[in-house]
Amino acid sequence: MTFLATFLVLILAAGGFFFFAFEKSLSKYIDERQQAQVERLAEHLGVLYTQRGSWHFLLDEPRLLTRLYWRPGDREARLEGDGGPRRDRDAPRHLTLLSPDKRPLLGPPPPSRLSEQVPIRVGDTLVGWLAYPDQEAIRDKLDQRFQERLLRFMSTMALVGLALSLLVSWLLARHLVAPVTALTRHTRRLREGEYEARLTSARRDEIGQLIHHVNGLGERLDQGRRARQRWFSDIAHELRTPLSVLQGELEAMVDGVRPLNQDGIAALESQVRQLTHLVNDLHDLALADAGNLRYHFRQVDLDTLCEDALDALRPALGRRRVTVHTTLAPARLGGDPVRLRQLLDNLLQNSLKYTDEGGQLRLDLAADGDQWCLTLDDSAPGVPDEALPKLFDHLYRVESSRNRETGGTGLGLAIGQRIVEAHGGTMSADHSPLGGLRITVRLPRGS
Fold first, then answer.
1. Is 336 within 8 Å of 297 (Cβ atoms)?
2. DSSP string over 11-39
3. For residue 62, how far is the Cα from the chain centroid?
4. Is the N-terminal amide bond of 381 cis, ω within 30° of 0?
5. Which residues contact 82 (CB under 8 A, 6 or more apart)?
6. What is the pLDDT of residues 177-227, one digit of tens each?
7. pTM of the model
């Protein structure tokens, strides 16, 4: 309906403008043509007046004015200028010959309004006037018939334009509304949870781009649903393991299978600590994903934070005989010292847990353009290629056994990535030249 209404408005506007312009142009053309013809007649009458000396030659033979009128400009009148019926029918009955003082001599009296007068001169002497009404005063049935024919033509053209507008509007509506209707049905399916549904389209216009984006939205929703299902399954597994150990230990103590001594209580306390650590990590990750993890930014020395984190972990590194090499340039930036320290602790703890005894760990901090580049390398074992993109996923660990002695909760790198992103930086994983894993953190040097 919008297309059709637009086409109709354009057709009516164009038709009205054409009719108005054509009618005005035609009227002006007729006026100018008649004025030119009357001026030629006045010039010719001046020559005849010079030859005859008076107007008696016209007063005695009034039809001579008709032949003289058509002679300058009408071929058909000249051909029929022998006094036949066509000449009489087309005689210029609206012409009036006036004396120099504007008294009617020949022809009908001129109208008081809308009258034009052309002087007849012999040299510099005024010998008479030719008066004629303009087109507004002599509208006749011929003009009305011409207007009626023009209106019929315009009406026919408007009907043809209407038919073409209906056809074009229907084709455009089918071309544009059909994919919109399909998009409506598709989004309804997405709303009902059918995230695997996809739309196929070969269009390259804006609607094709919209279909592509809606398909991308459906894919993201499908990935989110699968990630949520995997997330719930992993959380249940992570919580079930320490709870099962606790339940088994407690049942053994209740049944007397295991004595209630200091070692048993220490084992229970270790499982509770692991469970608390998992719950705290889940809470931090949930806050980070929701954008609610609080940060307090100020100027901090990143190299000092690195040294403090290493000092806290040196006893554990010593027990596993892991050699540490550091190259730390003075690095001052704007950040949250608590969250940055949490990032460093997670990275170092991850390297400690997944590095064989007697291995190596290298920590480098240097400027790289407008960023600080922090690189952490550890020795074997390494990480398979297919596992590198998944290291920052929730609860992902490379080893399939999910061994508590070597593996953590699988949330440290995910939380670390959220902390780096909150500081405007990036974190990536790659193979280390030492044979293990390389974690690269880039943070902006600005405040």
1. yes
2. HHHHHHHHHHHHHHHHHHHHHHHHHHHHH
3. 79
4. yes
5. none
6. 778 888 888 888 888 888 788 887 777 778 888 888 888 888 888 877 887
7. 0.47
